[in-house]
Amino acid sequence: MRQLVYNAVTCVDCLDTLVSYHRHDYKVCQCENQTMVDGGLDYIRYGGKDMNKVVHHAVYADDDFEKVRQYATRGSRGKDGLQPLTYIAIKDMDDDYLQAVVDYGDADWHIDLIKKEIKYRANEKM
Q1: Contact 91/70 with Cβ under 8 angstroms?
Q2: pLDDT value at position 72?
Q3: Under 8 Å between Cβ of 67 and 61
Q4: Which long-range contacts (CB under 8 A, 24 or more apart) does 106-114 make?
Q5: How far is CA 79 from CA 27, 35, 46, in A?
Q6: Which residues, other chains included, contact 76 with Cβ-Cβ below 8 Å and sequence gap of 6+?
Q7: In the chain, which residues have pLDDT < 70?
Q8: What separation in angstroms does the CA of 71 have from each of 52, 57, 126?
Q9: Separation between Cα atoms, residue 114 and residue 116, nearest integer Å
């Protein structure tokens, strides 16, 4: 089974893009179509009153890494753990942050992506 790293929808009516980051992270736009997404990285569920106005976006861990690194994220509450939760794409994480994720641990598939990013950056510097 392919590992999902990005699960989002765009509502064609209001142009909102809604990202579901974790299981049961249900999001819905406020326009008449009520475009919705759910499931985070565990399952895909999306819809709207008119499905012709819903565009689903999915990125998987085995997609081209140039694409994956733009969409795979990590949630963070800052170095002190007291900041509001934000999500940052692995391409935007600094080197210390990447290494901290490897040291701290996470799901195997996520650690694999972080290690790919570290290797990718090392190859880019050559």
Answers
A1: yes
A2: 97
A3: no
A4: 106/74, 109/3, 109/61, 110/72, 110/74, 112/61, 113/5, 113/61, 113/68, 113/69, 113/72, 114/74, 114/90
A5: 27, 34, 34
A6: 83, 85, 86, 87, 88, 97
A7: 126
A8: 24, 10, 25
A9: 5
What secondary structure letter does DSSP report for 55? E
| CA 77/CA 54 separation, integer angstroms | 31
Cβ-based neighbours of 92, under 8 Å, separated by 6 or more: none
Question: pTM of the predicted model, to two decimals?
Answer: 0.91
pLDDT recorded at residue 126: 65
Residue 86: exposure state from Cβ atoms within 10 A (0-12, 13-18, ≥19): exposed
